[in-house]
Amino acid sequence: MELSAALEEIEKAENLEALQGVKVRYLGRNGLLTQAMKTLGQLPLEERRERGRVLNEWKGTIEKALEEREAALRARALEERLSRESVDVTLPGYAFPSGGLHLTSLILGELLRIFRRLGFSVVEGPEVESEYFNFDALNMPEWHPARDMQDTFWVEFRGPTPFTIQGPFGESVNHRGGAVLRTHTSGMQIRYMIAHTPPFRIVVPGRVFRYEETDASHEAMFHQLEGLVVGQGITMADLKGAIEELARGLFGKEGKARFQPTFFPFVEPGVQFAMWWPERGKWLELGGAGMVHPYLFRAVDDYREERGLPRVYEGMTGWAFGMGVERLAILRYGIPDIRYFYQNRLSFLRQFRG
Question: For residue 61, what are the domain limits?
């Protein structure tokens, strides 16, 4: 064999498959160079040494040439592939439609940011609730109008697996009455107080459900935001201050709040609160509030005592409020019909997309 012939074949290889054939022809088990090296033992000693040195040099030269040619062929193949599969980035791209937050989520997010700045924690609760937490523990006895079938979705569970409504510690509370779709977020007041010891301040966002006819101002499903503060020496002044801060957070430094007396079974005294909207020069009635009724504290301590926990709410005071999230959006943006929120009318929703 001749070295020049091997190098010429390597250079003429047009692809990796052809190059592999050249490699096998010269360096394979039965290759020309391999066979030549096997004959060294038949030569005289001096000739064997010289011939061995030459063959080793040829082997090194051929291996180097093979590596260089392989690298060149791989680079050329990559370049051809990139050229073949290239994308013309000068063409205009297709603008995919982007989504956004629902108006209700935007308003709720704004409210939560305000209360987080005031040091409140955000907690959530179950939408399928026990009659005990939704009514009984909130000082609403069986004869209360809110417990009438016209106001409440009562839930009946059927199937091979029994459904269990769990209490604050994971215990079953099915024995404490029926199950309902919660009519307000106030049930979380009881759940949170049972599982925690004061002082604390929380807000509870979530969906609530009312069994009533839908019209421009009523819907069977809507959102509420509940607030609860409990501790030593909490007063109505603290409640007024928090609602004033909420008003300023929503409507700027000119925002303010006013209270009007009213009745709710789970607060005493109770008030309706309205906020001043400087831009429109009007009061907006947004929700109800008041001092936590002593009955709630007793109900919580009784529940804790049943489970061997200490009574911790004697001597405590606190305040609570509740407001409709959609109602705030309706008043702020002049939306004429609450049903617009959940009819999936894109022409309406896109006006407020976040």
Answer: 3-81
170 assigned to some structural domain: no
In this structure, how many other beta carbons lie within 10 angstroms of the beta carbon of residue 179? 21
pLDDT tens digits, one per residue of 148-161: 766 899 998 888 88
Are 206 and 269 in the same domain? yes
Residue 288 CA, chain-centre distance (Å), reads: 29
Residue 347: give its domain's CATH number: 3.30.930.10
* pLDDT, position 227: 97
d(CA 326, CA 104): 6
> What DSSP string describes 148-190?
STTT--EE---SSS----B-TTS-B-GGGS-EEE-SSTTHHHH
323 and 260 housed in the same domain: yes
Six-digit token string for 327: 């109602």
Cα 208 from Cα 145, distance rounded (Å): 17
* Domain co-membership, 120 together with 61: no
Sheet with 282-292, side-by-side order of all strands: 121-122, 200-209, 221-231, 317-324, 282-292, 267-277, 257-264
Q: Are 41 and 48 in contact (CB under 8 A)?
A: yes
- Could you give the CA distance from residue 115 to residue 205 in angstroms, rounded to a whole number? 12
Which two tokens mark 138? 């909130």
Does this model's pTM top 0.90? Answer: no
Asked if pLDDT for residue 306 goes beyond 80, the answer is yes
